[in-house]
Amino acid sequence: MESEGPISLNNKVFDPKMVNHSITFYHYPLSPPSRAALLVVRTLGIKHDLKIVDIFNGEQHSPAYLKINPFHTVPTVDDGGFYLYDSCVIMKYLSKQYAKDDSLFPKEPRKAALVGLRMYFGSNYLFPALRDYFAPVFFENVQPSTEKAKKFEERLQQLNDFLENETWVAGKDLTIADFCIVSIVSTAEAIMFHVNKYPNVSTWYKRAKEAMAPFGYEEIMQDGSDKFGNAFKEKLK
After folding, report:
1. Rounded to two decimals, what is the model's pTM?
2. Domain total for the chain?
3. Domain range holding 31?
4. Where does the UniProt annotation place the signal sequence (predicted)?
5. How many CB atoms lie within 10 A of CB 165?
6. Which residues, including other chains, have CB under 8 Å from residue 93's CB and lie 6 or more apart?
7. Catalytic (active site) residue 103
8. CA-to-CA distance for 138 and 140, rounded, in angstroms?
């Protein structure tokens, strides 16, 4: 596993009492969930030692990695020996543990429930539909399925409906649910889904990219999505 060394950022949502605290973040740039969680880490300004886990070379199956994540997935976070390995859980934990306020993950029960609901939609409906489309292309060397593309587009339409008269996916404020969803939408766009067919999604997507830009959107999310898209297109040749 490749380590990129400690990275420190600080901004208004990060609790300044944690300025000397650091976590280890195990990451693979092509992974949408991993990109989402890493962008939250950057947004919170948490010092982190970034370690790249090369999924395509099987580093996620090494004994050392399986010891901290028996499900051999990315991302994984090591916070002083406390290990977490689900992107949604990681984003919730870091927001509750280290943000100086609850803007990214609200405390109010109904607002928190809506954030959780949209993250559940992302991790259990939107992303699985996208994965069902791209995984056979990557791992079975088959051409994309028109039927599976339509199923993903049905989920995009659901997202478009959720965004009707809304600024963000879980209400009026940017939350970790937006990070979860934007990682999926950016990946879908990179593998040639036409996001602009869905007006509410398209407007929100532009807004999200602008809001996340100061925290490394281009470096983390866009670059990873572009690499994912290039790898996908190579499989089509």
Report:
1. 0.92
2. 2
3. 2-98
4. none
5. 5
6. 77, 79, 84
7. no
8. 6
